[in-house]
Amino acid sequence: MPAPRTTLRRSIAAVASLPLLAVALTACGYGSESTDDDAKKVNAASGKKLSADTVRIGYFPNLTHATALVGDQEGLFQKELGGTQLKTATFNAGPSEIEALNASSIDIGFIGPSPSINGYTKSKGKNLRIIGGSASGGVKLVVNPKKIKTLDDIKGKKIATPQLGNTQDVAFLNWISEKGWKVDAQSGKGDVSVVRTDNKVTPDAYRSGSIDGAWVPEPTASKLVAEGAKELLDESTLWPDDKFVITNIIVSQKFLKEHPDVVEAVLRGSVATNAWINANPDKAKDSANAALKKLTGKALPPEVLDPAWKSIQITDDPLAATLDAEARHAVKAGLLEEPDLKGIYDLKPLNKILKAAGKPEADDAGLGVK
User: Which residues, in sequence order, are bridge partners of residue 193?
Assistant: First the structure.
């Protein structure tokens, strides 16, 4: 087996038959009770209105969507949009966000690679484009240290993933396959028991002993560690340069065609937000946590927030080669028919912005529009 750092070992599933999870949690943004943060956004909403009165952006209330959390919280998106109003909506899962994009309920979304591929292939390449990157990493295998000491001890144990066919589920299935073990992808039964468990209830499942560990994104991984679990593997170590896409930016093709100036403004806001996050990690961490508190009613405690934040890399690069590898690994797992992903990326607006800022341009791995 090739050395881990030179082999793309993470997979993605895009299963058209997967059931949709709960749809949008809530819409947030203007019209809510006035706060200092709201005033910050309103002050940013000055200047010339662009070609659209409003742009609607969707994302998850999750640290892996830090660009969206911080960009909205700090008014950095609105600053670039000027007189065009920003409205946001949050979602529980990728399928519901894709549904919203297809229904024109949102125009732009921060979302993981699995639903991006799923949405693109189901629409035969007609509904979305990936236009930028947001985050890499933030996925770990954490285990009960009393039952599991080494990676080989995973065999015969019950390990949770968030959902059948989601990004982490197939990453784990692929890792199992490369260990030489056998698991039926659909049932999760085999040399390892793969237990599909919603991230919200995974800590309870761990406490009850119904699972022995989990391959999960942050902050669920750090929540489990706070419960006594031990980090056994950081998925980033399985990828070249320790990087793989966990969150990218998508746009409705219709909105991109009709309002390219608005899309560029959002991307400028994203690039500015990412630069601010990387230059001010502690302030950005606090900003993201403040946004989470507003959205969910509860901030993350330091013992969860601090390690989770450190494991996520914020990036403008969508890391297209890793998405391509994820799709191929999903095919290998039997959870995806061979997809045609050519045209899933349109990085021209992003690269225009990066070039103007003197930054390296992003590569589309041969999957860009011509």
Answer: 158
pLDDT value at position 48?
Answer: 84
Low-confidence stretches of the chain (pLDDT beneath 70): 1-46
Phi, psi at residue 11, to the nearest 5°? -120, 165
The encoded tokens of residue 73 equal: 């919280």
Could you give the angle at the alpha carbon of 223 between the alpha carbons of 29 and 234, nearest 5°?
Answer: 100
pLDDT confidence of residue 46? 61
The confidence score (pLDDT) of residue 4 equals 38
Q: In what order do the strands lie in the sheet with 26-28?
A: 26-28, 85-90, 54-59, 108-111, 245-252, 128-137, 312-314
State whether residue 189 is helix, strand or coil. coil
pLDDT of residue 290: 97
Spatial CB neighbours of 181, under 8 Å, sequence gap ≥ 6 = 155, 190, 191, 192
The pLDDT value recorded for residue 85 is 97
| Chain center to CA of 37 | 24
Q: How many CA atoms lie within 13 A of 299 on its CB side?
A: 12
CB contact at 8 A, 303 and 226: yes
CA distance 356 to 351: 8
Q: What is the pLDDT of residue 23?
A: 33
Residue 158 and residue 213: Cα distance in Å, rounded? 7
- The count of C-alpha atoms lying within 13 angstroms of the C-alpha of 255, restricted to the half-sphere facing its C-beta, is 28
Tokens 């946004």 belong to which residue?
A: 291
The rounded Cα 291 to chain-centroid distance in angstroms is 17
What does the buried/exposed string (b/e) look like for 229-257 if buried means 16 or more CB atoms within 10 Å of the residue's CB? bebbbbbbebbeeebbbbbbbbbbbebbe
> What pLDDT does residue 93 have?
82
Distance CA 71, CA 319 (A): 21
The Cα–Cα gap between 174 and 80 comes to 41
Q: What is the pTM of this model?
A: 0.84
Other beta carbons less than 10 A from residue 37's beta carbon: 17
